[in-house]
Records
---
Amino acid sequence: MNRKNTRVGRPCKPYRTTWGEYINGLRKRGDGRWQIVTTGATFVEDDERLAVARFRRWESDHQGLSVPHSGETIAEVQFKQQPNGKYTVRAKKLQSVSEIPEGELWAWFREQLISRPEYAAQQTGIPELSRLADLPRSEPSPTLKSLGKLYQEHSEAKPKQVRQVALFWSRFQQWMAGQDVKTLNQLTPALLAAYGDSEKAIARGKRDGGKEGGSLVYLKHRFNAIKGVFNFARKRGVNATDLRHALDCCAVLEVSKHRRMLAPHPISRADFHTLLGQATDPCMRAFLLVMLNCCMYPSEALALDWGELNLEAATLTTSRNKTKIIRIGVLWRETIEAIELLRPDVPAPHDQPIFMSREATRWSTKTATNQFRRLRKEVGIDHSVKCADFRDGAYTAAIDSGADLTQTKLLAGHATGISDHYTMRKPMMVRNAIMGIYRAYFGENAQG
C-alpha cells in the first residue's frame, strides 16, 4: 500500500456498506480506490466485502494483535475466554498466545468466511459455508401495513369487496399490533390460531356477555380476506419466502363445516298477493314476480340482463352467480306483462340490466330490499317476511306439486349432471315445476 501525507481538517465520515454497517477509518474515493483514512494509503478491490475484510486485517496488524493471516495454513486453533471478557487464541503453527478482543476475533472469522469460504467449511466441518456466496441476498420482511396498502391500491376487485377486505385487514393488523407483530416473519401458527379463536368467540357472541349466536359465514369471509391479501402480494412478486410462511400459518384459520340447518320459510299465498297488489312501482312488481316465478334470491333476480330473456318464447336462460351453473325457466303471463313495462323504448343491448335505478344503473340489492321493507311496512305484513322467502316458496311449491327433482334443481341453479349446453337449449324442461309454483300461488286455473 502507498502512503500519503494526510490532510488535517474535518473528520472523514465512516464508510457505510451496502448492508448498512458503518466502518470507521475507511472510505471509497471517486476513482474507485479504497483509502485508509489514518494513513492515506490506498488499495484496489472490486468486491466491497473483501475490501472491508482487508481493512480489518490491516487494522488488526497495526494494533499488535496476533490474528492469523489469510494466507497462512493453521493446523489447530484453540479459544478460551478469560475473566476480562477477552479470548486466548493458541495457533499451533504460530506457536504464540495472544489476547484478542472478542470483536476482533469475530472480524477475523468474518474475513475467512468471505475470502476463503472453502477453507472455512473445511476447518469447521460445515460444508454449507462454502456455498454462502451463492445464496440470494435477504430482503426485509414486508410489514402488514404495506400489504394492506398494496391490495387497496392495486387490486382489481370490485370497490365494495376492496372496502370489505380493508375493514377485515385493519382489524387483523390491530390485533397483531397488540401482540407486537408488525412484519410477516414474526407470524407463527400459534399466533394465527389465537387470532382465529378470538374472532370465533366474537362471532358466536361469547365475548362481553353477548347473546349466543352469530354468523360463521361472515367469519369465513374474514379469514378468506386475510389469506386473499397474502396471496395477492405473492402474485405481485413480494417476498415469496415470507409470504409462503404466512400462508402456511394461515392453515389454522378454518371455520367448522358444521352448519345450523335452517327450515325453509316460504312466503304465504296471502302475503304474496298483498304485496303484489300494493306494488305500484313497475320495478318492484316485476321484481316480486321474477323472484317467485324463477325461484331466485333478490341478488339473482337483479343480476338479470335483457339478453337472458326471450319474452316471445316466454323463457329464461341464465347462470347462477354463486355456482356458475346454467339455470332455465318458463315465464308466466303475469311476469311477462310486468317485465314489458320495464322494456326501454329503443332496443336494449343484451348486457343492459332489466332492473334499473333512476340514475340509469343496475338496481342494487340494498336499494331493492329497502324498498321491499317499506312496502311490507305499508301493507302491515310481519317483518319476518323477507325477500328470500320468495325463493323458499317457489322451491317448496315445486316439490309439493310432484315435479321431478331434477327439474326443480335446474330451476334453482343446482347441479344435476346434465351438461350446460343441453340445458341451454331446453328451457321448457322445467315447465312442470314452474306450473306447480303457479298453481300454488294463483290457483288451479294455470296457464295452458
---
Amino acid sequence: MSDAYGFLAPIYQPLSRVVFGGDLVEANQTFNDLARDKKCLIIGGGDAVAYRDWNADFAGEYWDSSLKMAELAKVNLSKTKVNVNCGKWPGQGEFDVVLLPFVLDTIPEKKIEKFILLVSSCLTLEGKVIISDFFPPQTILQYLIQQLMIIGFRIFAGHPRRDLPDIRKVMDQVGLKFSKEKIWRKGWIRAQVYEKSINSSY
C-alpha cells in the first residue's frame, strides 16, 4: 500500500509549529469533549498528537492511509479504547461522532460528496461530525502559504487537489446541519461541528 504522506511523519509536528504555532493541534482538539463516552471514528488522523490526552473514556476507530502515521497514532492513543487501523476506512460501522481532522482538503472534488454521504450514513440518529480544516485564506500571506503547501504536497505526496473544497456547501447538500465553530487566523483555519438533520434520509 502506498504511503504517500509517510515522509511527513517525523517532521510534521515541528514543521507545523514553525508555520502555524499550535493552531492546527488546537483546532483538532477544540471539540474533543463531544467524543467523550461516545463511539467515535477518526479518519485521516495523522499522528493523533491532538488526541494523546484522551483516556479510556474515548473509544472507537482510527483510520489513516499512512503506515508511519498510524504507528505514531498507536502510541498517542495507547491510553484509549480506540482501535488504530492503517488503510482506507471501509465505510462501515455506526458512530456517535466522526472526526475529520484536515482530511477533506485531500479528497478530490468529484469524490468528496460521496465520502460525506457515506460518513452521514454511519452516524447515529443524533450523530455529529467534527471538522477541522483550512478555509479560504484571508490575507495575501495566507494565500501564498496555502499555494506553497498545495504545490509541495502535489509534488511529494501526489496530493489530488489544487484548491480547497467548499465544506459548508457539501455538508448542506448531504443534510448535515451546521451547529457551531471556532476560528483561527481570521477564519483561515476553522473547527466546525455538524449534526445529522432530523429530515436527513442518510
